[in-house]
């Protein structure tokens, strides 16, 4: 299930974020986490299965739009549908908004576009 980020998840969130190609630099990573903590229009979610945090998705919200900024799954849990499940959960949570990608998440969003709509 998708849960909201909180400070106690900082280290696991940074580990997951670091799998993004644009978050390899530690200073950038720290700034990104800080932005998610401080900016009202930025929301970070984690994917929890039982007690394990194995995925992360970060979004930027506007009135009509939700843009996926970051998406990452623990390498040991990839290819099991978690990435798509996170996108579907976002579509369900923000059903009134249009879900879009940025340049770093576009490839995966395009990949799962057909299978992640809330009506599925
Ligand atoms: C992208 C990512 C979140 C997918 O998570 P996942 O849980 O393995 O995804 P799912 O199991 O739901 O879906 C797997 C499908 O996505 C495809 N996929 C994986 N990474 C992809 C990428 N970067 N671009 C496009 N498609 C991708 C797989 O090939 C697979 O396709 P298939 O269904 O035809 O076999 C994961 O690979 C990851 O954390 N990557 C590193 C971070 C990253 O690069 N994020 C940005 C991605 S654009």
UniProtKB/TrEMBL annotation:
Name the InterPro entries on file. Acyl_CoA_acyltransferase, GNAT_dom
Please state every residue range assigned to the domain named N-acetyltransferase. 3-120
A Pfam family annotated for this chain is Acetyltransf_1
Q: Which keywords does this Swiss-Prot/TrEMBL entry list?
A: Acyltransferase, Transferase
Q: Which GO terms describe its molecular function?
A: acyltransferase activity, transferring groups other than amino-acyl groups
Q: Which domain of life is it from?
A: Bacteria
Q: What is the lineage of its organism?
A: Bacteria, Bacillati, Bacillota, Bacilli, Bacillales
This protein's name? N-acetyltransferase
């Amino acid at each position: 299930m998708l849960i909201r980020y909180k400070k106690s998840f900082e280290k696991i969130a940074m580990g997951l974020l670091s799998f993004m190609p644009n978050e390899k630099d530690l200073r950038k990573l720290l700034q990104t986490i800080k932005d998610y903590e401080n900016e009202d229009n930025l929301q970070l979610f984690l994917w929890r299965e039982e007690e394990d945090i194995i995925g992360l998705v970060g979004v930027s919200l506007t009135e009509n739009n939700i843009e996926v900024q970051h998406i990452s799954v623990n390498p040991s849990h990839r290819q099991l549908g978690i990435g798509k499940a996170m996108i579907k959960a976002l579509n369900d949570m923000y059903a009134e908004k249009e879900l879009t990608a940025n340049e770093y998440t576009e490839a995966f969003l395009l990949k799962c576009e057909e299978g992640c709509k809330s009506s599925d």
